[in-house]
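Key result, reporting period 2: structure in, sequence out.
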């Protein structure tokens, strides 16, 4: 999902629409956290404690550097 952000922004700038680029950025900033919330909840139900352990060790958007 995050990899698509530059694609949408670049596409909107290629058609010379700054408004569309701004709209995509705002839309994605709202859309991604909502989708992440529901996806995390579904994965926790589906995989249980194994997923909870995995989630504690990894970052949600960016990898944790330890």
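The corresponding designed sequence is given below.
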């Amino acid at each position: 999902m995050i990899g698509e952000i530059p694609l949408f922004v670049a596409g909107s700038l290629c058609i010379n629409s700054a408004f569309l680029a701004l709209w995509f950025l705002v839309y994605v900033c709202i859309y991604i956290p909502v989708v992440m919330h529901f996806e995390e909840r579904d994965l926790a139900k589906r995989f249980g404690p194994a997923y909870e352990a995995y989630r504690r060790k990894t970052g949600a958007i960016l990898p944790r550097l330890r």
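Residues 14 and 21 are 10 Å apart (CA to CA). Residues 4-57 form one domain. This case is discussed further under Risks and Mitigation.
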